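Model: You mentioned two targets. I'll fold them one after the other.
Researcher: Yes, keep them separate.
Model: Target one:
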Amino acid sequence: MKPKNLSKKIRRLEARLQKGAKKLAKLKQKLEAAATAGAAKKKTKSAVRADKARKRVETSGRAEKKNRRLTPEPRMRAVAAKRPITAKKVKRKLNLTPERRAQLAAAMKARWAAKRAAAAANTQNTSTEQGFAPGQGSQPQ
């Protein structure tokens, strides 16, 4: 390789490495800033929480002095409010051709008919096993 080309390649590589170092320094700086911001946010949140708790204790003390109940108040509402609300699953609409829809309908009707027949046969079997046949009364033996 010619010295001119080599020097060009070296220059480009050095520039690329310098850019990489700059990028790395920038990212490290951003990470540090985010960490300090997160710590500050946690600090303010905890201070706000402590302030709210302090106020709640002060107000509850006054309220207890005002309304002293003979029987404790039931806590049913608090339990009901804590239950997580689950969203209903959305049923997916099937894209069926009319022929396929008719085919599925016929299959389902056949399945239901078989189920009804099995249930009817089952009720007849149980009645004959107990000693009662249709059309026969109870006869002494």
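Model: Target two:
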Amino acid sequence: MAEGTARRTAGSAGPDLRQGPGRLLVTLYGVFTVGAASRSVYQLSTRFDEAPLAYVLSAVAALVYAFITVSLVRGGEGARRVALVACAAELVGVLTVGTWTLIDPSAFPDATVWSDYGLGYVFFPLILPVTGLLWLRRARPAPREEGRA
């Protein structure tokens, strides 16, 4: 932890993604990783033939959540950029699947994590990527000034 603080003060890194609101974001993504993965593993192994598209999309959501969680925990500018792209992709997924479930409900005989924009999860699947994008933009390192060492 002291190493991360030293890096922030010595370099131009932004806020640590593993402290304050960043820690809450990591925790929420971790919880959603476990929840979506558990749900999809159960559904894929016991009821795949009932709603294969919905269950595969829940598994995709779990993978996206896991990827973002690992990126946030890893820290650093490269991981921040990767998490930023992954959050944007997650938001596109939530909006696409959410709209699809409203336009063609028959394509989803059972709900996914992202169905109806995350209605079954109190819209957290829609709120998380927006919050993640905002936090990751805020956590961007300050630009370096040319005259400074």
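Researcher: Noted. Anything on target two?
Model: The mean pLDDT is 85.
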